[in-house]
Design brief:
6-stranded mixed sheet, single chain, 5 helices, globular, alpha+beta
């Protein structure tokens, strides 16, 4: 049985209220935008995601990022997991990502996490994304018990849960 209903259609464009930014599924072609965003915020992202995902490695190359984005693009197409890029109107800059994944740990039916680049951390855009994501998940995704990693549960507490 799939973690999503067979007839589920994932959103392809999600405006972020109060900003000129939007979310859309990430693509391999976004590597030129993603790589500088990730590596420019690598230390903070490692502090958030490193213990759980071992990402992003200090030595990650542009080619490794391209391969990772190709994997994400294929997983999105197969409805296995989702990575949404936070982009400007022209899609010339990437400012963060939202991940929507099947549960790895017991107690939820979807696991959601997100980040913004260092320049936006703690600011209006991050606050807008923090407000949007739970509302968007509740409105457009078929989860009864979504878990917001690093938000409603610490990463450390999540890692201590039994596998799903």
């Amino acid at each position: 049985m799939s973690w999503l209903p067979e007839d589920f259609t994932h959103p392809v464009f999600v405006p972020v209220p109060g900003t000129t930014l939007h979310l859309r599924p990430i693509r391999e072609a976004d590597t030129a935008l993603d790589y500088p965003a990730v590596m420019g915020s690598r230390q903070r992202l490692w502090e958030i995601f490193g213990p759980a995902w071992s990402w992003p490695k200090e030595t990650m190359t542009r080619e490794e990022d391209r391969i990772d984005l190709l994997r994400h693009e294929r997983e999105i197409a197969a409805h296995q997991s989702f990575n949404y890029a936070l982009l400007d109107e022209e899609e010339t800059a990437l400012f963060g990502c939202v991940y929507i994944d099947p549960p790895e740990r017991a107690g939820s039916d979807g696991e959601v996490s997100w980040w913004v680049v260092d320049d936006l951390a703690g600011g209006e855009v991050e606050r807008a994304l923090d407000a949007l994501v739970p509302q968007w998940i509740a409105a457009d995704w078929p989860f009864q018990r979504p878990r917001y990693l690093g938000r409603d549960i610490t990463w450390q507490d999540w890692l201590a849960l039994p596998p799903a």
